[in-house]
Fold:
Amino acid sequence: MIKLALTDLDDTLIPAGTAPASDRALAAMRTAMAAGVHCGPVTGRAPSLLPWLMGEGTEDCWATGAFANGQIVRLDGRTIREVPLPREGLERLVEVLDGIDGAWLMTHDAWSTDYSRFVTTRPDALRAAPPERYRPDIPVSRELPETEVVKANIVFSCEPEGWTPARDALNDAVSELDFVFPGQGVPVLDITPRGWDKGKGVLCLAEALGIGPDEVAVFGDSQNDLSMLAAVPNSVAVANATPEVRAAARWHIGASADGALPDALEEIARAFAEARMPSFMTEA
Structure:
């Protein structure tokens, strides 16, 4: 049986451009939880953005989950793991970005939307050709925050053909960090500690619940979901997933925009009540 159901949010549970989550999606999560299945998001987003992404008054739907690509793990409303980005890696990253045009470091407070900042030694170049996420009220600093950083991104102001070469250059140059695209066509790279990812967050939750990987279902659509698809046997891709994700997943359902994820969660709830595997997790 599936005892833990975890889903990516953007373009998986929540179709592109439709945030906050629909009433149908929230009802399906609550149906699964009422049946006895732990259910929640595994997302690159920080917890500070969940009220916007899921809607106000939805804390029960993200009391369990993994955030910031698995660096923050929560179970029943309690944080059980938090993995900061290594400072020496971030310092090296600031140096490397000096030589990459149109790629900018943003750091964030994972628990508040008030403390984002750009960190660059080229503030004039940033303001001259800013990325979409630039706003005049966001501080621009030459120094990293003094406190630990859990959530950070690279945001691009260059053309899309420059994004993948920049990612590859950063992965080669900064050994303490990994860089991964959070979604299809999004001008952003997520930053994680080297070797830490959504898959580690999923397994951390399973261990805390005392269940095996085969009792976990994960749903995803994009590159930063690959690690969690590889972490457990019951990996599921939505139909709008990238070819790489579809190939990596064991099971497949319909498109995010067609409500396939809420349908799947409701079937997981029925299957749990009947002590069986969900119908979409059967070999053809």
Remarks:
- The first strand starts at residue 4 and ends at 7.
- The domain at 87-193 is CATH 3.30.1240.10 (Hypothetical Protein, Haloacid Dehalogenase-like Hydrolase; Chain: A; domain 2).
